[in-house]
Amino acid sequence: MGGVSNRFVALIGFFVLLAVSALAAPVRAQPAAVATDSSIAGDKERTDFTMTLSTGVAVEVFTLANPYRVILDMPDVSFELPKTSGQSGKGLISAYRYGLFAARKARVVIDTVLPVSIDRAVMTPESGGAVKLQLSLVAIDAGKFGAGTGASRTSKRPTLSARKAAESPPGKYENGRDRRRPVVVIDPGHGGVDPGTLGPSNVYEKDVVLAVAKELLEELNKLDRFDVAMTRTEDVFVSLDDRLEFSSTRTADLFLSLHADAIADKRYVAQTRGATVYTLSDRASDEAARRMAEKENSADAIAGLASFTDEAEGGVRDILIDLVKRETANFSMALSNSLVGRLKESARLSSKPQRSAAFKVLRQTGTPSVLVELGYLSNKEDEKRLTSPDWRRKVAKSIAAAVGIYFDRRTALAR
Ligand code: ZN
């Protein structure tokens, strides 16, 4: 989790509630506002962040430490900004990202290079009912950052519990005694305010994996032998904890997390490509796998979620991982084997297609789980494949076939 491994995730800061009373937004089913423009101006002492919204909405602004960020929470704003907005920064701002943080709740996460305080936050009317939201950030020293006026504020994670039980098929598929169909959970990585990796042609990982996940849902449903559920079906952020909770609430028999990552090192971009299937292990199979897990595990921090649970539950999780039944680990490996066997027919495999590392989303005691990196968005050819509907369908068919084979073998073993 990068810097979040410290004792405490200090998330003290100064937060301001901005509301434009004169423009109180009427309750509507559609997005409360549309963000049409954003910009950064200033220097390392003082930096202004500006965003134009189609109408005034209540915006909550606060800072988080570790790493230093400024968070803007607002109702379900739809962001119609160029895809590259926020990729680079200026002054105190290194980058920013935006998207849904939960159903009907949008968020902007601004990464800052130094601790900052919010010196000014205003919303001014523009023509046609639009408003300009302006934040002025000033550099402060780290000591002062913690002494902000805002009470320590928890950036509460959105919870799925409201809708979890109702739609969850109860029961587990065990040795064929239970007539219920096996439950397969498809987990498209990232989403909403966490875009994942961005490819050279501005392709977002969150969009690619959701598209493949939808194809996979269709292919698995065609087999007519599984109950299939997805951790997200739209462009919304889902925390890693919620993904785990989703799987456990449904007593999933199989958990497939889909990703499409990238490598940063330009020297290896051309030759690093192809699909890789990851299983859980405390010790990573290699350095690249370890880094990949670290990157994927930072998804919550990227979305501006201060992860208390890592500190509070870290110990418990570590014990849990020891208790993961050998059986579950073996089944995960069996799934990885059948996936690699099938994927090599439709997708190019990476140089070492079966790896393992401590992916948080795979820490499931009773559910065989794998994380599939479908390819590398950093590689031009992989990016092209990942955006091709034909390729996506082919890969989804292969994964569905592999899941079928996995359950056939499992059932055969149980007899
Ligand atoms: Zn990813």
Give a description of the structure:
- With 415 residues, the chain is α/β, with parallel strands linked by helices.
- The protein has two domains: 6-139, Immunoglobulin-like; 178-414, Aminopeptidase, CATH 3.40.630.
- It contains ten helices and 16 strands.
- It has helices at 142-145, 161-167, 205-223, 240-249, 287-297, 299-302, 308-323, 326-346, 380-386, 389-414; strands spanning 16-18, 33-42, 46-53, 59-64, 69-75, 77-79, 93-102, 105-112, 116-125, 131-139, 183-188, 227-230, 254-261, 275-280, 349-357, 369-376.
- The strands form three sheets. Strands 12-11-13-16-14-15 form a six-stranded mixed sheet, sandwiched between helices.
- A hairpin with a 3-residue loop joins strand 2 (33-42) and strand 3 (46-53).
- The longest helix has 26 residues, at 389-414.
- Residues 1-28, 147-178 and 307-316 have low confidence and may be disordered.
- The structure holds zinc ion.
- Zinc ion is lined by residues 189-190, 196, 205, 259, 261, 296.
| CATH fold node name of the largest domain | Aminopeptidase
CATH hierarchy class name of the largest domain: Alpha Beta
User: Which secondary-structure class do the elements indicate?
Assistant: alpha/beta
- For the termini, the CA-CA separation is 43 Å
* Number of DSSP E strands: 16
Give the helices and strands as they follow along the chain: EEEEEEEEEEHHEHEHEEHHHHEEHH
Bound molecules: zinc ion
Spatial strand arrangement across the major sheet = 12-11-13-16-14-15
Give the CATH architecture of the largest domain: 3-Layer(aba) Sandwich
Average pLDDT, rounded to a whole number, is: 82
Whole-number count of domains = 2
Main sheet record = 6 strands, mixed
Rough shape?
elongated
Question: What percent of residues are in strands?
Answer: 25-35%
> CATH superfamily of the largest domain, please?
Zn-dependent exopeptidases
Give start-end ranges of low-pLDDT stretches: 1-28, 147-178, 307-316
Number of helices: 10
**Using only CA atoms, what is the Rg?**
22 Å
